[in-house]
Amino acid sequence: MVVHSTSERVLAGLDPEQRSAVTAPAGPVCILAGAGTGKTRAVTSRIAHRALTGEISPRHVLAVTFTARAAAEMRSRLTALGVPGVQARTFHAAALRQVRYFAPRLLDGRAMPELLDSKVRLVTLAAGKVGLRADRAGARDLAGEIEWAKSSLVEPGEYVVAAAKALRDTPYEPAKVADVFAAYEKLKRSGGVIDFEDMLRAAVWGIEEHPDVAEQVRAQYRHFVVDEYQDVNPLQQRLLEAWLGGRDDLTVVGDASQTIYSFTGATSAYLVDFPRRHRGATVVRLVRDYRSTPQVVGLANAVISQARGTEARLRLELVGQRPAGPEPDLRIFTDEPAEAAAVAARCRALVDAGTPAREIAVLFRTNAQSEAYEKALTEAEVPYQVQGAERFFERAEVRQAMVALRAATRSIPGETPLPVAVVEALGAVGWAPDSPPAGGAARERWEALAALVQLAEEYAATPPVLPIGPAASVERPVTLADFTDELARRAAAQHAPTVEGVTLASLHSAKGLEWDAVFLVGLSEGTLPTTYAKTPEQVEEERRLLYVGITRAREWLWLSYASARSPGGRARRPCRFLPQLDRSGGTERAGAGGVRRTAERRRTQIVSCRICGATLLAGPDRKVGRCATCPSDIDEELHERLREWRRRVAGGQRVPAYVVFTDATLVALAERRPSRPQDLTAIAGIGPRKLGLYGEAVLALVAGAAVDEICPEKTFEISS
């Protein structure tokens, strides 16, 4: 009776879908869990319910996650539910524990070899052995390719074909990468060390090739749970199958719409194919979103509803469960410095209004974008922390570049235009202003140094007033020495330690996290989606990145992009994935006879906030002519007269009041106080028809006329 009562408490408060997941029978279970739908609660409750009802023993459960933080949270929740003792670990931690335990048996009495913390040093040596000179960024990219290959169960001799089939953007010629891969494996063996992929392979080998090991492991672990199953790679799947040994007590949890790590070898194929691979599997869909407001959920659904490809087959339409909140704030700025300054100002306002800085995040596509926001937040005196990456001025390539820039002040003539001087100086560290190199780390390094060139262009375009002589202050062109001093000042300002601050993070680093307020910035074509997304599959992964970013927000969401990188720069288009930002109107229709015709391009008037200058995209904001967060200068007395006039007109026509004018239009009229017909038509929602019907009356009311003069309390009808 006590056990029954305890298990019922586990079920208390679960929604119907969560309860279905928790009480599903033993065997293969696939929980498709959308963002914010309580998947951790569901899966821990499933383990607890089965344990408390006596169906399973906690010590026979292995729950696998992808981060140590997620594993710790799972253990904590299970303990709180009265089920301690469940093994919740990452794939690597579980494999390491098993390999260490069985090493004497597998290695003829020898201990497990030393585990490499990083591949970079050995990869650099391997590259040298095959005649390839790789800097640190190049070595990191080579290490990434080796990790992808080993995670994908690809051997050195198979790499060239496999990389071509997977459309890998290799950092060097594929055959040369294969040579480095082979040399790395030899160096590793001769040094008596293993890497993380070797450890997973050793765990697989120990089970597949040693029946006694397999028997002991499978006697220990009989029930398996895998979180974030869309991120499993072939090597991890092989280990999971070795653990299972043909058994089927497996629960997997995942969301195909959050598949964003395919470049590492992760694939959602195992999640997508789960019902086919496991006949009779129970499939449960969790769609009730408890994290975000319905407004945020609606935007997320709109973005992912356009998804195509394999992952879209498991697309979930979320249903918001929280009370209504503010609409997502969509803004366009003239350039990136203006965008960063506006974001910092809004962060400052949120913090001043009581939002903890730790509950605010600024998310971007690449780490190189962080510098502008680090600077803007510093100037706004808003503390911040960089998640998953070093601060811009702490990065090794940036520190190296600053040394090169300082050294170049002694060799480059002072009259050299600053951008030219910076490009010339960066040549000493191997940077060139041409196309960025292949390979993620090398490209990231290139973009970080390109950000310094952009800073130089901006700094040269707005030179500060510099003192010359004891009393005079005049403007003069800035020099390379001035710029290096400015960089040193920024670096010093941004090194100040902070206990709590606004989170700056890439979209990849933000996975699994959430905040009250989220700023998604830099949403322009070429950045998101990145120019490096060439195939339809890569473009769809960029869409999913935006979806992940949107679903990080609980309450307040800001989306923005700059129409140019720097003042006066080349115009850019907004991110194609945002329906609200798509102004092309270039959808296709099928005409007569099945001929497809392109619809006429729709012209959209750009409306800017008359207070702060930001481009307005939300309908109510465009009507009023200002951002919802900017101060109102409404004429309250005029607003009341307009409301009374509308009431009488609507009553006479026997129509709802909004048919005459919406509330937003009345606010716009009372704020803008138009004096001419063209002023009226400048307000969104007032076209020629309403101008003809109501224009004269509205202008008279704005000029001070009483409602009784314009519209007596009697029936008001529109002539047919």
From TrEMBL:
It is an enzyme of class 5 (isomerase). This is DNA 3'-5' helicase. It comes from the Bacteria. It catalyses: Couples ATP hydrolysis with the unwinding of duplex DNA by translocating in the 3'-5' direction; ATP + H2O = ADP + phosphate + H(+). Transmembrane segments: none annotated. Belongs to the helicase family. UvrD subfamily. CDD domains: DEXQc_UvrD, SF1_C_UvrD. InterPro entries: DExx_box_DNA_helicase_dom_sf (IPR013986), DNA_helicase_UvrD-like_C (IPR014017), DNA_helicase_UvrD/REP (IPR000212), HRDC-like_sf (IPR010997), HRDC_dom (IPR002121), HRDC_dom_sf (IPR044876), P-loop_NTPase (IPR027417), UvrD-like_ATP-bd (IPR014016). Its EC number is 5.6.2.4. GO terms for molecular function: helicase activity. Residues 632-712 form the HRDC domain. Keywords: ATP-binding, Helicase, Hydrolase, Isomerase, Nucleotide-binding.
